[in-house]
Design goal:
- With about 475 residues, this protein is of the alpha+beta class.
- About 60% of the residues lie in helices and about 15% in strands.
- Helix 1 (about 1-45) packs antiparallel against helix 4 (about 140-190), helix 5 (about 205-280) packs antiparallel against helix 6 and helix 7 packs across helix 8.
- The relative contact order is 0.06.
- It is found in: Membrane.
- Keywords: ATP-binding, Kinase, Nucleotide-binding, Phosphoprotein, Transferase, Two-component regulatory system.
Length: about 475
């Protein structure tokens, strides 16, 4: 807009200058006409040849656009006239100035109701004396009319230039800059509303594209910092949970160690003496009582052993473990605990399936899972294992009654929680399984199977790292 205003001011100044120049040109034209007829008129006046004067005045209309011409004597009396003229200039001051000074004069005058431009030219005789003057009239509007078309053309051109310039600026700015600025503004508004995943379109002029790239880099940096913060918080929570877990295990370990120490020796003595009495006693009633004593001693011994297994940490030196032989050993170790010869334990474990693990701890976990399944099953327990690329999934399923309603997985994994009747379980089997699987970086799932019975699924990574070891070494802490 300032440029267009300056251009308009320039046009106005130029038109004003051109108007002045055109006016001067038209005045010069009138002066030249006057000079051209002054000599013949002067000669005609010298001999009082009025006819020659009239012919000369008529010739003016052939030379230029003149509205009137007349010749006056030194007293202002009209000698001859043609066109629109004044008849009496005896009292005209401009006429007196022409006669007195001998210089040409020009005035804008009202003649016969028309506004005219009059040019007065003195006429001299042979001796150089003023013997009259010529008045040539031209309509004053001719001076303005000559510039009207030029002014209209100039201002029309300026108007078209304004419209074209504004159109180019507005639409060009919008197409080249405005729409990209609007898109960037909309992106900022979306980000302000919480759309953290949105990124600005890196398009448009290089400055705006660089601004969009800078905004995207800033958002990516914020996202990275947020992820790092979340990871650090998760790491700190894992450390806190691990510390709490270690403290709990340490406390239970101290209790279990004390129980094992305090009960181990008395239980061994009781079992030894009951065994000795069984050798020397033939009374069936007493034999049953002694065997019941030995059974209770074995139960107490098993509870103490499970407490120790629950609190004992695994080794951090893992080795490659073949799952098929390990599963066979677990089933063989449980054969003597099976109360029914009709119970079948089937294995579907590939021969080449192996993982990195603490073999003793993994065997302990599998034995507890299979034992629980065997105790709940009616006829069959199935053990299956399959690799999913990153790890191994082991499923142990029984055909028993399944889990009771209202019991969730979190309760089942708590120590000393059992769904069995009082005196049949310690509630440590699944807790031991959970500890072992967690040590290996795996997970446990317990649920009723759609076909009946309960299914325990554990997933272990193929290349496991101890959870405690990984947490302690993360970021050098």
């Amino acid at each position: 807009m300032p440029l267009l205003v300056i251009a308009g001011a320039g046009i106005a100044v130029g038109l004003d200058r051109m108007a002045t120049l055109e006016s001067d040109r038209l005045k010069d034209d009138v002066e030249l006409i006057g000079r051209a007829i002054r000599l013949p008129i002067g000669e005609a006046l010298a001999v009082n040849d009025e006819e020659a004067v009239r012919r000369t005045l008529q010739s003016v209309f052939d030379i230029g656009r003149i509205y009137g011409a007349s010749v006056f004597d030194v007293n202002g009396n009209q000698v001859a006239a043609a066109g629109i003229t004044e008849r009496d200039l005896t009292t005209s001051q401009v006429a007196q100035q022409v006669v007195t000074t001998g210089e040409q004069q020009e005035r804008y005058r009202q003649v016969s109701g028309m506004f005219l431009f009059s040019h007065f030219i003195p006429v001299f005789d042979d001796l150089g004396r003023t013997n009259g003057f010529i008045q040539i009239n031209r309509r004053a509007s001719d001076f303005d009319a000559s510039l009207t078309q030029l002014s209209q053309t100039a201002w029309a051109t300026w108007g078209v230039l304004c419209f074209a310039t504004l159109a180019v600026v507005i639409f060009g700015h919008y197409g080249g800059v405005g729409r990209h600025v609007n898109a960037l503004t909309q992106s900022m508004n979306r980000i302000e509303r919480g759309e953290r995943a949105h990124r600005a379109d890196e398009a448009g002029p290089s400055e705006l594209a660089e601004l969009a790239r800078g905004l995207n880099r800033m958002l990516n940096s914020i996202d990275n910092k947020d992820r790092e913060l979340v990871q650090r918080q998760a790491h700190e929570e894992a450390l806190a949970q691990q510390l709490q877990y270690q403290e709990k295990m340490a406390a239970i370990g101290r209790v279990a160690g004390g129980i094992a120490h305090e009960l181990g020796a008395p239980l061994t003595v009781i079992d030894g003496r009951a065994r000795r009495l069984l050798k020397d006693n033939q009374d069936p009633t007493q034999v049953r009582q002694l065997e019941a004593i030995r059974g209770q001693v074995a139960r107490l011994t098993r509870i103490v052993r499970q407490l120790l297994n629950y609190t004992r940490a695994g080794s951090s030196d893992y080795e490659s473990v073949q799952l098929r032989p390990l599963a066979n050993d677990c089933v063989a170790n449980l054969r003597h605990e099976l109360t029914s010869d009709e119970l079948q334990i089937t294995l579907d474990v590939p021969d080449d399936l192996h993982i990195e693990a603490d073999e003793a701890r993994l065997e302990l976990a599998l034995i507890n899972i299979i034992r629980n399944a065997a105790q709940s099953a009616t006829r069959e327990v199935s053990v299956a294992a399959v690799s999913d690329g990153d790890g191994v999934q082991i499923r142990v399923r029984d055909d028993g009654a399944g889990l009771p309603e209202g019991v969730d997985q979190a309760q089942l994994l708590e120590p000393f929680f059992s769904t069995k009747t009082q005196g049949e379980g310690t509630g440590l089997g699944l807790a031991i399984v959970h500890n072992v699987v967690t040590e290996h970086g795996g997970r446990v799932a317990i649920a009723n199977h759609s076909a009946g019975g309960c299914e325990v699924t554990i997933w272990l990574p193929t290349r496991a790292l101890p959870v405690i070891k990984a947490v302690e070494n993360k970021d050098g802490e």
